[in-house]
Amino acid sequence: MHKSQLVSALAEELRVSHQESEKIVRSFFSSIERGLVQGERTEIRGLGSFSVKEYPGYTGRNPKTGAAIDVPPKRLPFFRVGRELKAVVATDRKPIRK
Q: Strand order in 48-55's β-sheet?
């Protein structure tokens, strides 16, 4: 499902305009992004949790030339699937929530 499909499904389910639905989805994603930038963890029960993992820098190799390259430390977003979502997908049954 793409973001636009999510917006359309939300608009249909809540019986609101497409523009209003888009504002809701954009606000939801922005809230998660802001939290991750600030180093916070966001947990959505039944779905999963978003957090930031920090990776240290290291010395790598250019596969073409074999030259050593310093790779800087980085922070990357990480999503861990919740138990309920994992169970729904694994058993191929309908979602718990409507």
A: 42-44, 48-55, 74-81
Give dist(CA 48, CA 87) in Å, integer.
12
Question: What residues have CB less than 8 Å from 97, skipping those under 6 apart?
Answer: 46
* Domains recognised in the chain with CATH numbers: 3-91 (4.10.520.10)
**Cα–Cα–Cα angle for 8, 10, 11, rounded to 5 degrees:** 65
The whole-model pTM stands at 0.73
pLDDT digits 0-9 by tens, 41-90: 999 998 999 999 999 999 999 999 999 999 999 999 999 999 998 988 88
What is the three-class DSSP state of 66? coil
Q: How many residues does the chain have?
A: 98
